[in-house]
Amino acid sequence: MTRTSQPTLADIRKWPATVNVGQAAQALGCSKSHLHERIKQGNSPVKTIPFGTRHVVITADLVRVLSGEEQGAA
Question: pTM of the full predicted structure?
């Protein structure tokens, strides 16, 4: 099984406005299931938007978190 490398902050800044939870989890260095659980509990480190039965992560907020900027996700 080939493991995909963690994207750099420069890579993430080129991503679309929103990304799926799996892609965001990879950038954060956690599992997709862990991030899904945090979203479900309402304590995700990144802002998400409900999209039907799933959520998408706002890329700008992902960049904010990975840059170490002020917290503010809800």
Answer: 0.84
